[in-house]
Structure formats: structure tokens, C-alpha cells
Amino acid sequence: MTLLAAKVIWVLGVVGWFIIRYPHDRRARRTPKLQRADGGREIVLMAISGAGLGVLPFVYVVSNAPHFANYPFRPWQAWLGAALFAAALWLFHRTHKDLGRNWSVTLEVRDRHTLVTSGVYSRVRHPMYSAFWLWALAQALLLPNWIAGPAGLIGFGTLFFLRVGREETLMIETFGDDYRRYMARTSRILPGIY
Ligand code: SAH
């Protein structure tokens, strides 16, 4: 593994993510919404996450900037990053399959929204966010730069911690005790741990 290969793997991972998401994005545009959380706040959170998982690492991949933050490339670290990115894409694909038409890029309740508690949703409530954490970890391992690497953890972490509680409140408002019981038997992102 070389630095160039690690960068190419990062790019392929992001392209893979777009390919997995594209058909769901198209369907989501056509699925009616009943309720939407604060749109302005969600746009800011997604911009922060996008800067960390997309813009900063992209600038590094094409220009090696910011140069002062570079550190020596370690092949084993990049291999681990590649494996985590593959796991992230697999999980991302599974979560989209299981959530189906209930998925939204922000916090929304759809017309005829159903509560999904099976498949990858059987042990964790937010497996799609687990997939994004895996992506962010993969990026930190693939890109040997102290800013571009961890930017995904900070950017997505900001979105995650400022959104997840509100999402659970919205799900309780929508599904009541069904969601409370589901919460009681599941973790947020890591089975049995958190
Ligand atoms: N937090 C989940 C889903 C992310 S998509 C995950 O990480 O896998 C965000 C949308 O999914 C929200 O608008 C919410 O309405 C919906 N949602 C979240 N959990 C759900 C569930 N268990 N069943 C159905 N819809 C859910």
C-alpha cells in the first residue's frame, strides 16, 4: 500500500457511498412528508459533517494541504482504514435496505412511516450513524494528515451528538411506547456498549 493507493481508496469509498445512496435519494424526493424538524439547524449540521467527511479530506487528497499537518504514511494503518471503509459501505447498504422508504437525509416523518426494528436495526437504533462513524474512522486511518484525517470524526461527531437525542424524541412522539420498548432493548450505535 502506498499513499497514492490510500487516497484512491478514500475516493472510491466516497464514490461507493454516492452510488449506494443515489436511488434512495431519488425515491425520498417522491415520498410525502408529514413532519420535519428544524430545517435550518439540520442544514448547518450537514454542512459541518460534509466539510469533515468530504471537503477537507478532498483538499488533502488533491493537494496534500495543509502541509504542516502531514505525518509519515504507515501501510498497516491504511490497510485497516480500507477494511473499515469496506465495512462502512456494507453497513450503509444494509441500513438503506432495511429502512426503505422511511429514510430521510434529515429528521422527518414520512406519510405511512413505519418503525423498523429488524435486520441491522435489531440490536442498534442508529446503524446508519454507525456506518458514518466507521467511514470517519476509516478516513482518519487512510489519510496521514492530522487535520484532514480526523476532520470526519469531528464533523460527523458534531452532527451525531446534536441530532441523535432529537431524533429519538421525534421517534417517541411518532411511535410512543413501541419506540420506548425498542430503546430499552437496543443500543444507539455499538451493540451492548453505547
Ligand atoms: N438514525 C437512523 C436513521 C437515519 S435516517 C440510523 O442511523 O440508522 C433518519 C430518519 O430515519 C429520520 O428522519 C427518522 O424519521 C427515521 N428513523 C430513525 N430510526 C428509525 C426507525 N427505527 N424506523 C423507522 N424510521 C426511523
Explain what you see.
This protein has 194 residues and is mainly alpha-helical. 66% of the residues lie in helices and 4% in strands. It is built from six helices and two strands. The protein has a two-stranded antiparallel sheet with strand order 1-2. Helix 2 (39-63) runs antiparallel to helix 5 and helix 5 (151-175) packs across helix 6. It is elongated, with a radius of gyration of 17 Å. The mean pLDDT is 96. S-adenosyl-L-homocysteine is lined by residues 95, 99, 102-104, 107-109, 115-116, 121, 126-129, 167, 171. Residues 95, 99, 102-104, 107-109, 115-116, 121, 126-129, 167, 171 line the site of S-adenosyl-L-homocysteine (SAH).
What's the topology here?
Blueprint: H1 3-30, E1 33-36, H2 39-63, H3 75-99, E2 108-110, H4 127-142, H5 151-175, H6 177-185
Antiparallel strand pairs: 1-2
Helix pairs in contact: 1-3, 1-4, 2-5, 3-4, 4-5, 5-6
Bound molecules: S-adenosyl-L-homocysteine.
Brief digest:
The chain is mainly alpha-helical and 194 residues long. It has helices spanning 3-30, 39-63, 75-99, 127-142, 151-175, 177-185, and strands at residues 33-36, 108-110.
Small-molecule components bound: S-adenosyl-L-homocysteine
What composes the largest sheet? 2 strands, antiparallel
- Oligomer state of the chains in this structure: single chain
- Indicate the low-confidence ranges by residue numbers: none
H/E order of the elements? Answer: HEHHEHHH
Compute the CA-based radius of gyration: 17 Å
Q: Helix amount, in percent?
A: 55-70%
